[in-house]
Here is the input.
Amino acid sequence: MAVPNLKQVPALSRANELNVEGEARVYRSMRYFWHVVAYSHEVTDKPVGFTLLEHDIVIVRLNGEISVFDDLCPHRGTRLSLGHVRDGCRLECPYHGWQFDQEGELTLAPQRADLAGQLRARTRKYLSVERYGMIWACLEDKPYFPLPEYPVWDDADFHYVAVTPAEDWKCSAPRRVENYTDYSHFAILHDGYLADRTVPEVPPHEVFRNDNRLENVQGEGSWVRVPIDSAAWGGKDKPADPYLRLHFNWRVFMPLTCVYDITFQDGNRYHLLFHPTPMGPKKIRNFTVSSRDFGDPAKADAELGDFVKFIYDQDRWVVESQRPEELPEDLTREMHVKGVDKYSVEYRLWLLELAKELGKPAIHVHEEKTR
Here is the structure.
């Protein structure tokens, strides 16, 4: 039997051996990209608080549109996410009733209504957009890459479900992306659901950059098989053969948004849009939209949402156990198998390029906000 092409590296201890500055660069670079901060259905007539990259923000609908601000009233530092929406168009602080408009400008300090328009008070507004049933935000004024693409969202043949609740994990966002795009664990950790343990070989595939995304294209005519009694694909017609056969393509819209395209041998299609939003260096929230063009739309929550959560539960304990918690900046710190780990290696190389360009320490300029 042929010996795999392996590169031997020193054994890792349980301690985090990643270069501290390299880790910080990757993390700092994340503020230049779009991140999911809520599902659309979660933001109704009340403000919603969230922590993005250790920065507290508030998400709110004003005049029917999404706005994202600092979760901080400039008067006495109260969380605006604890406040209220007034007349559908103003965000009110719960402490003293100061009100802010859609642009974050102060419109009313009720104790001195005569000063309206004179107080230099505002809460910072961030870029935001509502797309694919999700709210996206960026902490920088000029995102490095455009919003990820998910064209099946507008395809009438598909129905979808937002996988809720979006669970928080104790891991870094890049580690979770690598887990999501790791071919070789399917047949072992997800035996009988995403692949078959008796056929652990990784199918032929190509990996390449395409604009702002890293593509994985499975070889034409190659199929991954799962038993037909798997809970994975409720609502599908079952073949006479004891297995369903699937073809995987996926891409990462750098640095974190994963889009899966799964095609069955009978032509049915299944898609996933996934984003592990970094709440901190080692804490994420998993946001997922799952879509398909088969089965009963009324059963989507059970047959799509519950299955995705089941797979995530299988992954979670493994990903949260990984050391170092981040992806090592030095590729020789871990072992890579030729062909099998091709996608992971290319992902890490691109991630480090972005970190080198964007991950410089931030310089904060404090401005007077009130008078």
Q: What stands out?
A: The CA atoms of residues 327 and 348 lie 7 Å apart. The two ends are 78 Å apart (CA to CA). Helices lie at 20-29, 173-180, 186-189, 300-319, 342-358.
